[in-house]
Amino acid sequence: MPTRLLLISDTHIPGRARTLPAAVRREADAADLIVHAGDWVSVAVVDDLQGHGEVLGVYGNNDGTDLRQRLPEFAERTIEGVRLGVVHETGDAKGREKRMTLRYPGLDVLVFGHSHIPWDSTTETGLRLLNPGSPTDRRRQPHHTLMTAVLDDGSLRQVTLKAL
User: Fold this and answer.
1) Staple partner for 89: which of 50, 105, 114, 141, CB 3.0–4.6 Å?
2) How does pLDDT run across 43-78, given as a tens digit for each residue?
3) Residue pair 110/89 in contact by the 8 Å Cβ criterion
């Protein structure tokens, strides 16, 4: 049975927005699993997203004690035969593929955040690295963004970067 994913990160609420954008809520309602790669800033965002579906998330560098007590620094789950990991920071873009391959050798997909810059690459070993950007703080990017994807029968499919 295919599993639809919503991938988001770096919501920075209430610093960058008062609430989650309506587009994020719509995508959350359509997803089977919401994956958040950290920098929520407010625990209310976790509660909000959990009202829309199941959440797999981690804390980021801007998250306080309340979020760090509730969420791990790294999360992993096997879904539809795909080993999915989530972490906030992966370091500099230069050398990222090699570092993440060494750090997470058993993963098929790693979702990360921190930079607010969308990223989609595949390492030499087949590890797919995905950063959905930010739906609330685009920084130097032209748009606020999120990603959707489908896990089905042991593979990641239909990865789509969506501008808000």
Assistant:
1) 114
2) 999 999 999 999 999 999 999 999 999 999 999 999
3) no
